[in-house]
Amino acid sequence: MALADISRVEIEKAIEECDRLGRDAFLKSHGFRRARRYLLVHGGRHYDSKAIVGAAHGFLPGERALSPDAKGFSGGAEHAARLLKRLGFDVVEEPGAGDPPHDELISRITHLKVNRSANGRALYKPIALLWAMGRALRGEPRLLPWPETEEALKDLLRRHGVRGERLRPDYPVASLHRDDIWELRDCPRPVPTAHGDAQLKRWFATHQPLGGLAEPVYDRFRHSAVTRLAVLDELLGTFFEDLDPAPLLADVGLDDVESAEPHTPPDRAPEQWLITAAEYERGCRLVEEQESKTHGRRVSRTTHRPVRSRAARYLVLSRSQGRCENPGCTGQPADVTDRDHPLLEVDHVVDLALGGRDHPSQMVALCPNCHAVKTRGRTRETLRETLLKVAMERHATGGGGGTAPPGPSL
């Protein structure tokens, strides 16, 4: 690799090639994706900085175009962007410019294609995703050397691969990479498909790639509780319906769902409870997609119980800002749980057993006393009518629009 030898001549040739082919065809021909942050501005048009530099390398005498995974080559401030600036080109920084839209990205995760057997859907990819999600939640490094990934996933497949899964972490990693969910670095492209056997195993053993969740996926799992919970709901509902996922969730650090809820005591920092309207709207879209598949379903274990959404519960608690959503509440307990959560219970105003929806528009956060009145008090029918209006109004304003809900001041 000879980045230092690239001049304006090679860069302009790469720009001409991009103009001739069109952006998408140019990126595809060189194996690149759209730039995530740094864009080259030339002639009033924007170009993907890393792809342009990679293609320009191929115009040097005796050299080939660089692949996206070429060792030591990145599109960041210290590589492609720095080179372009040194050559006198304008480079603009647009955080997240190349990331796929949130809904598109999550759709890739919630519509996984997996192999099926007589025992049901294979668990390779769900297990790998849940492991990586747990790592993101804890803020652990996004990318790991292949031996560490291999060891961790082998152990999980050994413990939880109950549908005939072999101890082959290369299967889910290669497949998730083709889904644009998993990133592999320091290795040649293309990565073999997950349908091989000896060839795929040999490829990973030979190249020892550095890998992990694609950066935008990791960031959403790390920073968006509602995204994390909605994906968890989808994976568990799709792949573990007839299984007990608790041991797996404990092993990957996702067993304590309560820890993902808002936890700042409302008497100390009520603003921490605010959820943006955009986040609330995105969360509701994810809830609605899942609800369209689970409405009316029951999970059969020792009892029959409705399928419920962790994400919907999280949205309601966030919307409440830690206060009872009954406008007539006379005072909720000032105490909090041992996790610093207010003593609130999320309730379905219209019972699921009676056809109610598992959706924030029909759910409220209530203190224990108001919950008891709504459930068995003499005035429960009147209160239910009020609470249904409250739920719909709060939902319509995207989580409350950033204003504190009516109710007692703690």
Q: State the distance separating the first and last CA atoms.
A: 63 Å
Q: Can you tell me the residue ranges where pLDDT is under 50 for at least 5 consecutive residues?
A: 258-273, 298-305, 401-410
Count the beta strands: 12
Largest beta sheet: what is the strand line-up? 2-1-3
Note the beta-strand portion: 5-15%
Helix segment tally: 16
The averaged pLDDT comes out at 82
Order of helices and strands: HHEEHHEHEEHEHHEHEHHHHEEHEEHH
Gyration radius (Cα, Å) is: 25 Å
Helix content: 40-55%
Count of domains: 3
Shape: globular
Tell me about the biggest sheet? 3 strands, antiparallel
Structural class per helix/strand content?
mainly alpha
Task: Pick out its properties.
mainly alpha; disordered C terminus; 12 strands; 3-stranded antiparallel sheet; 410 residues; globular; 3 domains
